[in-house]
Design a protein that fits this description.
The protein is α/β, with parallel strands linked by helices and 266 residues long. It has 9 helices and 8 strands. Strands 3-2-1-4-5-7-6-8 form an 8-stranded mixed β-sheet, with helices on both faces. Helix 1 (17-31) packs across helix 5 (179-188) and helix 3 crosses helix 4 (117-131). The longest helix has 17 residues, at 53-69. It starts with 6 loop residues before the first strand and ends in a 5-residue tail after the last helix. Bound molecules: zinc ion. Zinc ion is lined by residues 13-14, 17, 116, 119.
Length: 266
């Protein structure tokens, strides 16, 4: 049995990110009794064409809390300004403090090659903060963790980096067909304010439907209806224990090598 607590902290840049990229997996873990906290760096205050920033912050925080509540998760906001997120000492210490307060066994954040600048900055902050969460000299009000959390990255939009290049092969895909996909849609639909924004800003007529189609494309890659995919941070500084892969082993898939490269070599 893993020595890491079954407590997951997912830290994202904006409300709706956790739902868009990870909600199927979060629903599966919630079903297994995991304690889940969804945190966002910002309340997404720029994410509206019809409401001012203050009103947007208020609406989006309520949407995020309601979406988290659908799987019994808590919601926390670091209250940084949307679009103006910077990596500095203060935010790193706040993130360490939250990681310690929730006693995270697993932390998930954006990948370092994500298309969105706020997402990449969030990655940098969370990476740095998670790595030092056991160190007593970090000036935080909370006690240091006993073990560094296992660290994962979710997928970027379209599985490309910010230049549009294909990203490295995901370490694993998660089959979220059926109930978890249904729960993901329920969580996403709490973010009503984003339907109009995505229509005007990104030309997405149906934001929630687009997310579902994206999960169907990922599902196609592994022969299931809907999927999400992840990378584990294995390059040093974090435990290599495959906690999520073990916990959800019946939902884990990998692509065959020939499917990835188009070649058939072993
Ligand atoms: Zn975002």
């Amino acid at each position: 049995m893993s020595r890491h607590p079954k407590k997951l902290l997912i830290i994202q840049a904006h409300p709706d990110d956790a739902e868009a990229w990870c909600a199927g997996t979060l629903a599966l873990l919630a079903d297994k009794g995991w304690n889940i906290t969804i945190a966002t760096m910002t309340a997404g205050g720029m994410g509206s064409y019809s409401m001012n920033e203050r009103k947007t912050v208020s609406v989006r925080q309520k949407e995020a809390a309601a979406a988290a509540g659908a799987i019994g998760a808590d919601y926390y906001c670091f209250n940084r300004r949307d679009g103006y997120l910077f990596d500095d000492e203060a935010i790193r210490i706040e993130v360490v403090t939250l990681i310690r307060r929730v006693k995270a066994g697993v932390v998930i954040t954006h990948p370092p090659f994500d298309y969105h600048n706020d997402h990449r900055i969030t990655h940098d902050i969370v990476d740095a903060a998670t790595m030092v969460s056991t160190l007593p000299n970090v000036p935080s009000d909370e006690d240091p963790l006993l073990r560094t959390p296992v660290f994962y990255h979710e997928m970027p939009m379209n599985l490309t980096d910010f230049l549009g290049n294909p990203v490295p092969e995901p370490h694993f895909f998660m089959d979220i067909s059926g109930k978890p996909m249904k729960m993901k849609m329920e969580m996403l639909t709490h973010h009503k304010s984003q339907q109009d924004l995505m229509r005007q800003m990104m030309g997405m007529e149906d934001f929630f439907g687009e997310m579902k189609r994206f999960n169907a494309e990922l599902g196609d890659m592994i022969g299931v209806e809907h999927a999400e995919c992840y990378w584990q941070h294995l390059g040093g500084g974090f435990p290599r224990e495959p906690i999520i892969q073990d916990e959800l082993s019946e939902y884990i898939h990998h692509r065959k090598k020939q499917d990835i490269t188009g070649d058939t070599y072993e």
